[in-house]
Specification:
Elements: H1 2-18, E1 25-27, E2 35-37, E3 39-46, E4 52-59, H2 102-109, E5 135-139, E6 142-143, E7 149-150, E8 154-159, E9 169-175, H3 183-192, H4 195-200, E10 211-214, E11 224-231, H5 239-255, E12 260-263, H6 275-290, H7 293-298, E13 303-308, H8 314-331, E14 339-340
Parallel strand pairs: 8-13, 9-11, 9-12, 12-13
Antiparallel strand pairs: 1-2, 3-4, 5-8, 5-14, 6-7, 10-11
Helix pairs in contact: 5-6, 6-8
């Protein structure tokens, strides 16, 4: 506790020391080079004594990169210190390379497939292949012909790049024309190849909430890409559309007998759907789908893997999703076909 208080005070001292003299900046974490300097506004007020007090307030005009849509970084993800000008590849307070550093970007491009399902407990430590697995927040196993539980379905969460995930399919949030220009959809398209978008546009326009599949292109670790029409031609969406997309995509994944599907919190962000609200809809839709008795007996158990790209605070995201799952589970009458994981 004392160490935590000392760390908090150290950050406060950094803020007091540099806030009035150095200019804060925010930088695109994808390494495109875009950055924005904070605007410095002078606030003047007169005290009761008659003396004027002048303070400087720093503010930013944007929150996402206009080049690739990524959320701009303002703080170091490790020590949470403010990023100041000039742009440096490493944090000036803890020394860790920033997301836009060339050494980190090069490493990300060479990254192999992200294995997410934990190895069985009986596998020896030196034989394990998954050392950074996803976290299972809700469990719902399927049933075989004899009525016995098989495989591991449920809701999982992991941080990483959705295009590197080793799943049967990923969900791409497109517009009603089948165009893949949103942040996560563009990441999938860049990895799968431009031909995937041309295939996705066959049969356009699509109604909002509709789901369809294409081949996975160059994403050879996957069987397919599940596309959802989550936006209008102008990028507008709603929480009702998100719910329809999730229902359509999960039903299609079950029909195709996929065992795992990956997705991102599509439609969230600045001036869009709040992440807490998205988590609530995602949790209710997923828990309802996974605990459906009729589907559970005739389909393979499905693992739904939520991927968070370079989160500032992954533990906060996990906590929000865990609470949303627990609330949804209670609202649905605590179905016996699944349950939130107690030990996470």
């Amino acid at each position: 506790m004392r160490r935590k208080k000392e760390g908090t005070r150290e950050k406060e001292l950094q803020y007091e020391l540099f806030h009035g003299y150095r200019t804060a900046i925010q930088v695109c974490p994808r390494g495109c080079g875009f950055h924005e300097r904070a605007r410095r506004d002078l606030l003047v007020r007169t005290r009761w004594s008659g003396r004027a007090k002048t303070t400087a307030k720093l503010s930013f005009e944007t929150s996402h990169c206009p080049r690739d849509g990524a959320k701009l970084v303002r703080q170091c993800a490790r020590c949470e210190a403010q990023v100041f000008a000039p742009i440096a590849d490493r944090c000036q307070f803890c020394g860790v390379p920033q997301p836009w550093a060339a050494e980190r970007r090069a490493g990300a491009e060479r990254a192999t497939l992200r294995l997410w399902r934990p190895d069985p407990d009986d596998v020896e430590e030196n034989e394990r292949q998954v050392h950074d697995p996803a976290l299972r927040l809700f469990g719902a196993d399927g049933l075989d012909e004899d009525g016995k539980a098989k495989a591991s379905g449920g809701i999982w969460i992991i941080d990483g790049d959705i295009s590197r995930l080793a799943v049967d399919a990923v969900i791409s949030n497109d517009d009603v024309e089948g165009q893949m220009w949103s942040q996560s959809a563009r990441s999938i398209k860049n990895a799968a190849g431009e031909g995937v978008e041309r295939l996705a546009q066959e049969g356009k326009p699509f109604p909002l909430g509709h789901a369809w599949t294409t081949t996975a292109g160059d994403l050879r670790q996957m069987k397919s890409i599940v596309h959802v029409a989550s936006m209008s031609r102008y990028g507008k969406s709603s929480i009702g559309t998100v719910r329809a997309c999730l229902n359509s995509a999960l039903a299609l994944a079950a029909k195709q007998e996929f065992e795992s599907v990956g997705l991102t919190p599509f439609g969230t962000g600045h001036a869009a759907i709040k992440q807490e609200e998205w988590f609530e809809v995602f949790a209710e839709t997923s828990v309802t789908f996974l605990t459906d008795s009729a589907r559970r007996q005739r389909a393979a158990p499905l693992a739904i893997v939520l991927v968070i790209f370079e989160p500032h605070n992954l533990h906060l995201q996990i906590g929000l999703l865990r609470n949303a799952i627990q609330s949804a589970y209670v609202r649905l009458g605590e179905p016996a076909n699944g349950s939130p994981m107690a030990d996470i």
